């Protein structure tokens, strides 16, 4: 989780250089997505807790909108997890907190 929050913090810092407005978040690094994928596959009962904590920490520590964080997680998983599209969508729909599920 710290790797994800660290990446999001870098995006927030990078956006301080730009005029006020919505913060642009970039996809998570492939290695980070692969680590999360491995953990979720081996500890599926912790998936909602992990994704919820990421969204919560990003909101509290970085003042990021949970929906934006959820979108980055969803897109990053589609790009680099190696899981099927339908599986990722079902996983994110079930495991992300309600505030982060907007597509």
List the helices and strands and how they pair.
Blueprint: H1 2-15, H2 30-42, H3 47-62, H4 66-80, H5 85-95
Keywords:
103 residues, mainly alpha, 5 helices, 67% helix, globular
Structure write-up:
The chain has 103 residues and is mainly α. The protein has one domain. It contains five helices and no strands. α2 crosses α4. The radius of gyration is 13 Å and the shape is globular. The protein starts with a helix and ends in an 8-residue tail after the last helix.
Ranges where pLDDT stays below 50 over 5 or more residues in a row are none
What's the order of the H and E elements? HHHHH
Number of domains: 1
Q: C-alpha Rg, in Å?
A: 13 Å
Assign a percent range to the helix content: 55-70%
The structure class reads: mainly alpha
Give me the number of helical elements. 5
Beta-strand content:
under 5%
* Overall pLDDT score: 93
Please state the overall shape, judged from the principal axes of the Cα atoms: globular
Distance, first to last CA: 22 Å
How many strands, which pairing sense, and closed or not: the largest β-sheet?
Answer: none
Per DSSP E runs of 2 or more residues, the count of β-strands stands at: 0
Nutshell version of this structure?
The chain has five helices and no strands. The chain has 103 residues and is an all-alpha fold. The protein starts with a helix and ends in an 8-residue tail after the last helix.
